[in-house]
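queue> holo job accepted (zinc ion)
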Amino acid sequence: MLIDSHCHLDFPELAADRDGVLARARDAGIDGMVTICTWVDKFDSIRAISEEHAEVWCSVGTHPHNADQELHIETADLVRLSAHPRCIAIGEAGIDFFYDNAPRAAQETGLRRHIAAARITGLPLVIHSRSADEEMGQILEEEVGQGPFPFVLHCYTGGLDLARTALALGGYISFSGIITFKNAETIREVCRMVPADRYLVETDAPYLAPVPHRGQSNEPAFVRHTAETVAAIRGVSLAEVGVETTANFYRLFRKAQSS
Ligand SMILES: [Zn+2]
Ligand SMILES: [Zn+2]
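queue> job finished
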C-alpha cells in the first residue's frame, strides 16, 4: 500500500490514457495520489480529475516556471480555491534556479503568496526547489519565523544542509525516481538520515521515471520502484516504507483523512 504524493495527471502524457494509468496504479497497490496543480488558471480541470476519481486528490498553485504569468493570483485566490473538499494542498510553488524559466523576483513573490495561503488554511505547501538550496533555506527560516505552516520539499534534489533546515522547521522531504539514478548519492544520504516520520515518496509523473523505466513516461504505478529503493537505503522492508509513508502522508495532508 503506497501513495504517490505528487503527480501531474492533467499533463498530456498521462491524460491520453488516464483510465489505464489509474488501473495500473491500482494493480501496483497504489491506493492514492495527488495530482498537483502548476497553473491556477487551469485549476478547474485538475479539480475535475479529483472529483471523478475517489483515489485522486488535488492541489492548487502556480509552478515557479509559470510564476511571472500568474502574478495576478493572490493569496486570497489560493485560499478560496483550496476550500474545495478534494483540494488538500497548496502548490506546487517554489524557486528553480536551474531552469530559471521565470524571473527570480516573480518566483519568490509567488512562493511567498503560497506560503501565506498555507499558513492561513493550514494546508501543506508543496515546495519545488531546484538549485536554490541557500535561498530556499533562508526563505523557509524567515517565513516559519513569522508563523508556522506545514510543508514538503517535493522531488528532493538538494543537499544535506537544506534537508536539515527543512526538518528542523517541521518540514517533510519527498523522494522521487531520481533516488534510483546512479549519480544520486547525496539524495541517498539524505534518505538515510531523514526520520521515519518525515518522508514521502512520489513519482512527479510524467517526468523522471525511476529505474528500470528510466527514459519512459512516468506514471503513479512506478512509485513502487522508488519505495523499493528507499527501503533498501534505509534497511527496512518495502511494507514498512508503505506503512511509514502512508502515515506520514495522512499526517501532513490531513484534509485527505476526511475527503
Ligand atoms: Zn516540482
Ligand atoms: Zn511537479
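queue> The longest strand covers residues 87-96.
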